[in-house]
Write a structure and sequence with these properties.
By secondary structure, the protein is mainly alpha-helical. It is built from 9 helices and 2 strands. The protein has a two-stranded antiparallel sheet with strand order 1-2. α2 runs antiparallel to α3 and α7 packs parallel to α9. The radius of gyration is 23 Å and the shape is elongated. The N and C termini lie far apart (51 Å). The model has no long low-confidence stretch (mean pLDDT 81).
């Protein structure tokens, strides 16, 4: 894939060392998905990197969807983030679209375990080298054509419902009234208050007062 998620190196490290590297809160879709896979236990989820491929690509699709649904993650729906994703999305779709004319959908009939006749759609890709190049470049999971096709269709459906209007985030934590900010910090643990304090000057001023009170009580 032409880009890496910022936290990917940490999750790769955890997969190889079994040492926990992620912390709450989970800021991105990638962190949420990767943490879910790693929490399954029993086996190394990155054993053949197929799960890692799924997580990376699914996170990318979910981030694109989030800018049109208005539901993303704690990193925020900011213009700069969207413009970066959009460039990657256009390249991804353009290359996937070149494969579509060489794919044929066929209805396959079969008998299930209960002896009942069933049918399903299978896809035959006639230009396998073209697909393999795409699969390798974008780290698509093995046999992932249907996965990509369904996700791409879902994104276009969402874009259509949103009339192509991107839902950028307009309000931030610091835009809240002072009283609400003080209430948030007051109900935070000292660790969370320290994190809030490190973000900007305004929140540092509010947080430091409550951190001092908590430490005074504790001592």
């Amino acid at each position: 894939m032409p880009f890496l998620f910022e936290s990917e190196a940490s999750y790769r490290l955890e997969a190889n060392t079994n040492h926990s590297v992620y912390t709450w809160p989970l800021l991105t879709r990638f962190e949420q998905l990767a943490t879910g896979h790693l929490s399954l236990g029993e086996r190394n989820p990155w054993s053949d990197y197929n799960d890692l491929r799924y997580v990376r690509l699914e996170a990318f699709f979910l981030e694109m969807q989030g800018f049109f649904s208005g539901e993303l993650d704690l990193t925020g729906r900011h213009r700069s983030r969207f413009l970066f994703l959009l460039r990657v999305w256009k390249q991804f779709y353009a290359e996937f679209n070149k494969i579509e004319p060489h794919v044929e959908a066929q209805l396959q009939h079969y008998i299930d375990d209960a002896g009942q006749p069933r049918s399903r759609t299978i896809y035959l890709i006639y230009r396998r080298p073209l697909w393999k190049d795409f699969e390798s470049k974008w780290l698509v999971p093995e046999n992932g054509y249907v996965f990509v096709k369904v996700r791409v269709a879902a994104i276009f459906e969402l874009i259509s419902k949103a009339n192509s209007m991107v839902k950028f985030q307009r309000h931030h934590l610091i835009h809240l009234p002072m009283e609400l900010l003080e209430l948030i910090v007051k109900n935070a643990s000292i660790e969370d208050a320290q994190i809030i304090s490190s973000t900007c000057k305004r929140l540092r001023t509010i947080s430091q007062r409550h951190i001092f009170i908590i430490r005074s009580i504790a001592s």
